Amino acid sequence: MVMAVTGIIMIGFVVGHVLGNLLVFRGPEKLNSYAAFLRGTGGALWLARLVLLASVIMHVVAAVQLTRLQRKARPIGYDRQEPQVSTLAARTIRWGGLLIFFFVILHILHFTTGTLHPTFNHTDVYANMISAFRVPWIAALYVVAMAALGLHLYHGMWSSVRTLGMNRASRDPLKRRAAALLAAVVWLGFTIIPVAILAGFPS
Amino acid sequence: MNLTLRVWRQSAPDARGSIVNYEANDISPDMSFLEMLDVVNERLTERGEIPIAFDHDCREGICGSCGVMINGAAHGPMRGTATCQLHMRSFTDGDTITVEPWRARAFPVIKDLCVDRSAFDRIIAAGGYVSANTGGARDANEILIPKENVDTAMDAAACIGCGACVAACPNASASLFTAAKITHLGLLPQGQPERYRRALRMVTRMDLESFGGCTLFGECQDACPKEISIDTIARMNRDYLKAVMIAKAEPDSTTA
Ligand code: FES
User: Fold this and answer.
1) B252 pLDDT exceeds 60?
2) Average pLDDT over chain B, rounded to whole?
3) Which of A52, A79, A86, B128 pairs with B5 at a CA distance of 20 to 30 A?
4) Structure confidence at residue B168 (pLDDT)
């Protein structure tokens, strides 16, 4: 349940994040003034960061607990076990989560603190983005990480709703249209930016 | 048809087990999986070897005794059937079939393919009942229940407690079993008075047994011989969450 609640909080953030990022396509003024607005909220920004940090910690703790429970619950494995219906997303939720975790650390050092960014300018998010994603391997890293995020959300969103018992009964309970849509929007939204910039945007 | 079986043999709960190969020749495709094992066992007995131990009783998919992992799938390749209802025509001549017991810490192996499922009994004992003074038989349809509730409760009540959900779950979680019972009783008027107490107690018991946690892989629903829906798990979680809140608000209502 902790997993689901903190997951949903972070999904909320990710959706906001992707929408904000897409402002890049409306030019430097829009994106930079949005960034300035966020920074201008001062206390609220830090509050949000604190909530997110707490969510990450609790999410990870819950993941570690569940993984340990799993190991303990089946000390002798099967000689042969064939997954029948579970999705790739469900089966990679832990490794994907780990990947995303390290990515987020890198990403903060890259675009928030600028530590890893050679030409970082606090007030010019637009230029930071463009110069970073002109480097092919950085763009590639982001694309891969976002694929992992998309998969993670695809299972995470769907299962969180069920963990909290908020879904309506369905004829085909394994269907997950809403989660698929959300995961696709987030994945596409985040992926299109490095890809477009690498491809030469803005021309 | 001629088959090769790879069967888990373990002589006692704490003995070391291993996979042993057996040739199963001249098997009729019309036999059930358990009848095939009977034939193999007869031949083993004739040769003076110890037959393969496996659980079974009704052999028509209603008691929940049978159940083994067949080629990595709980109750084998057919959907919505127990091992006893699986026929050898689902296999082809020359196949190698791996047969293993349910694997979970909460289901320790007793012998060969038999496991101890009393963890399920303890979950039921924790709250899987309706306390009522029954008296004489009541008339049918005396209590009106919405059709939708009847259907959902009936579908959940189909659970035979075989343990395939635990066996198939990558987490070895007992959520589908517990959720089926909570759904079945919690939807009927007779189950209402104890509804939240029941959810709280059964889930607490489930967590005390050494099952894993549910991460909604969905494998249980596919393995279930009664095709019970994972929607029941969401219903269990909903009732459980409410129960926790009620327990916080009025500590006595759940311990009474
Ligand atoms: S033997 Fe009764 S369900 Fe299979």
Assistant:
1) no
2) 93
3) A86
4) 96
Of B72, B68, B7, nearest in space to A78 by CA: B72
Check: CB of residue B239 under 8 Å from CB of residue B246: no
B100 and A173: CB-CB below 8 Å? Answer: no
Ligand 1 atom with minimal separation from the B58 CA: 2
Domain range summary for chain A, segments of one domain joined by +: 2-76+85-198
Q: Which CATH architecture has domain B117-249?
A: Orthogonal Bundle (1.10)
The CATH number of the structural domain formed by B3-111 is 3.10.20.30
Q: Quick one: A46 exposed, middle or buried, by C-beta within 10 A (0-12, 13-18, 19+)?
A: exposed
Q: What is the pLDDT of residue B256?
A: 41
pLDDT at B255 over 50: no
- CATH number at A2-76+85-198: 1.20.1300.10
Does A65 contact chain B (CB < 8 Å)?
Answer: yes
Q: Is the CB of B244 under 6 A from ligand 1?
A: no
Per-residue pLDDT of A54-95, as tens digits, reads 999 999 999 999 999 999 999 999 999 999 899 999 999 999
**Are A111 and B198 within 8 A, CB to CB?**
no
B152 touches chain A (CB under 8 A): yes
- Predicted ipTM of the assembly: 0.87
Where does chain B hold its CATH 1.10.1060.10 domain(s)? 117-249
Token readout for B20 is 């042993």
Q: Where in chain B is the domain with CATH 3.10.20.30?
A: 3-111
Reported as a single tens digit per residue, the pLDDT across A136-146 is 999 999 999 99
Residues of B with CB below 8 A from A176's CB? none
Name the minimum distance, in Å, from the CA of A160 to any CA of chain B.
9
Chain B environment of A84 (Cβ under 8 Å):
73, 168, 219, 222-223
Chain-chain contact of A72 with B210 (C-beta, under 8 angstroms): yes
Measured CA to CA, the distance from residue B37 to residue B76 in angstroms comes to: 14
